[in-house]
Amino acid sequence: MRLRALVMAVALVISMPAVAAGLRDLAQAAGIRFGAAVDVEALNTDAAYAQLLAREFNLVTPENAMKFSVVHPERERYDFTQADALVAFAEAHAMQVNGHVLVWHQQLPDWLAQGQFSQDELKAILREHIQTLVTRYRGRVASWDVAAEAVAEDGQPRDTFWSRGIGPDYLALAFQWAHEADPQAHLRYNDYGGEGAGAKADGIYRLVAELRGQGVPIHGVGMQMHVSPDDAPRTQDLRVNLQRLAALGLATHISEMDVMLPVPASRTNLNKQAVLYRDTLKLCLAQPQCRSFSTWGTTDRYSWIPEFFPGKGAALLFGEDGRAKPAYESVRKVLRDAKTGTR
Length: 343
Ligand code: G3I
Known about the structure:
This protein is α/β, with parallel strands linked by helices. The chain has helices at about 1-15, 25-30, 40-45, 45-55, 70, 80-90, 110-115, 120-135, 160-165, 170-180, 200-215, 235-245, 265-285, 305-310, 325-335; strands at about 35-40, 60, 95-105, 145-150, 185-190, 220-225, 225, 250-260, 260, 290-295, 310-315.
């Protein structure tokens, strides 16, 4: 009887349809994390969105849920509702969380942006903000975009609310405060437009090299990769940037990739998009210090692009209906072909 039962159990297991591995499983085997920016409202209201996110990604970045205006809407009030929901979802689905973003010049609440503060008052506000957020998620948020987009197009430090209010050392202070709050967290600088060769890439390199040289606890750099088929960095230039950042001892991350297309998207443009995703992922996999690859959004339906770039869209791996696009298939093939342990 026991043998019969065993044979039946084995037959049952063999007959079960294997659940196709998601990108997250293939990425893990290839040695990187595969991520997406998450719209928490969609997560809470769209079951198909949540299911796709859990199946395909093992790294999540809150698209807006941890931004200053959302978590700190009044000087004496924090609101972690959305952030808590995302962190809980990530923990329930064995996903890593990249906190985004502690110091940025956009999406600041009116009480802050329109307030009159001395340099010391503004330092105290930013320190309290950073340490409240990072302490709350200590051990639960593995990495933070401590600062974003602090370098201008000409490669010089961007003139922002923070640089004017605190002074040029606001970045070093922000990283230090985050590190004090969670010494285990991986701390990143995150920017766009520095993926190819040029003044901005050199400016980002100078900035993070200087921070490292000062002993500031900065551990990685996010290369956002918001691109289009007509405006994308040359592969060799992105390789050089990834390599020279790694030579500083920094990890690198493709942190916010999307490839915007004129909509409705043509088959030709969808194929060009697939090539860009493929080549960028290959570059990341070829760089031992490139730790993660994230798209800025999960499906085209919730992408930021159409609102900000009228007439453009279709920027992600999954369409409006959540179905895989050619870019998904190209990414899947790269990950499948990547040999385990050869990074
Ligand atoms: O939540 C409010 C809502 O209550 C209000 O009714 C509505 C009216 O305008 O605004 C809503 O907030 C919007 C928010 O997205 C959530 O949808 C903001 O106006 C809008 O500006 C914000 O846009 C975000 C943008 O950053 C600015 O924060 C985009 O979704 C987000 O994709 C984009 O992401 C940035 C990264 O953080 C940094 N790197 C570049 C990337 C693209 O710009």
